[in-house]
């Protein structure tokens, strides 16, 4: 299966570089290029790519607004957004997660890391390290945005006890291997529980599943250090 990628960045030279890199892979192809968020949204609706590689800072409609619009459109449920930016601050990443992004990378990443990241997000996984999960979730869910719509706790009733347990550990930033060791399960079994929970809760990926865990009260953010 070929991973179809849409590039959204206001720097034409950078887009050209990404296109050459991505098109050189047998399992990937670039289906379009956008220079701002509004164009990215239009092209996403036209081409339905698997992934939008989205810059945050763009003129007019920025990447965060475009990400929110893409992730809120039910017709684009199969499209995932990977944020690529020079602004790797916690606030930007938190906003990207709220908007529905599946992960983020800095523009200083190597070519191999970028391609691996695209494949990771295309497979349905979140490109967010356990350490980043711990920090970001704690920081932005301690003080949710005013327009944040919290998931009702009763939505967890569809999960089995084991699925809730695994989801809670994932929300703490534990990797599948760490969860497997804690619960004496195989990593494959943990992955299965994660995917079942995602399906039942309508979560796009692991990042959104973690957010739902905190919004429903399944997990509790630690108080900030004094």
Automatic annotation (TrEMBL):
InterPro entries: CheY-like_superfamily, NreC/VraR/RcsB-like_REC, Sig_transdc_resp-reg_C-effctor, Sig_transdc_resp-reg_receiver, Tscrpt_reg_LuxR_C, WalR-like
Keywords from the UniProt entry: DNA-binding, Phosphoprotein, Transcription, Transcription regulation
CDD domains in the cross-refs: LuxR_C_like (cd06170), REC_NarL-like (cd17535)
Modified residues (4-aspartylphosphate): 55
Keyword Transcription regulation: yes
Domain of life: Bacteria
Residues of the HTH luxR-type domain: 152-217
GO terms for biological process, alphabetical: phosphorelay signal transduction system; regulation of DNA-templated transcription
Start and end residues of each Response regulatory domain: 4-122
Gene Ontology molecular function: any one: DNA binding
The UniProt record lists the keyword Translocase: no
One Pfam family this sequence matches: Response_reg
Name by which UniProt lists this protein: DNA-binding response regulator
The organism of origin for this protein: Streptomyces botrytidirepellens
Species classification: Bacteria, Bacillati, Actinomycetota, Actinomycetes, Kitasatosporales
């Amino acid at each position: 299966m070929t991973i179809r990628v849409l590039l959204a960045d206001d720097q034409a030279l950078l887009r050209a570089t990404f296109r050459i890199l991505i098109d050189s892979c047998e399992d990937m192809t670039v289906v379009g290029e956008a220079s701002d968020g509004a164009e990215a949204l239009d092209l996403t609706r036209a081409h339905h790519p698997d992934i939008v590689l989205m810059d945050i800072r763009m003129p007019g409609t920025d990447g965060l607004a475009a990400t929110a619009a893409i992730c809120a459109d039910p017709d684009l449920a199969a499209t995932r957004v990977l944020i690529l930016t020079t602004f790797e601050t916690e606030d930007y990443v938190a906003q990207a997660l709220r908007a529905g992004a599946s992960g983020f990378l800095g523009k200083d990443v190597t070519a191999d890391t970028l391609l691996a990241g695209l494949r990771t997000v295309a497979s349905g996984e979140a490109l967010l390290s356990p350490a980043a999960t711990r920090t970001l979730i704690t920081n932005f869910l301690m003080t949710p945005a005013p327009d944040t719509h919290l998931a009702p706790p009763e939505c967890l009733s569809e999960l089995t006890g084991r699925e809730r347990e695994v989801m809670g550990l994932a929300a703490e930033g534990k990797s599948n291997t760490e969860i497997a060791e804690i619960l004496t399960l195989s990593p494959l079994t943990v992955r299965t529980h994660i995917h079942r929970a995602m399906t039942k809760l309508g979560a796009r990926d692991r990042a959104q599943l973690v957010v739902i865990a905190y919004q429903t009260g399944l997990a509790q953010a630690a108080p900030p250090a004094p």
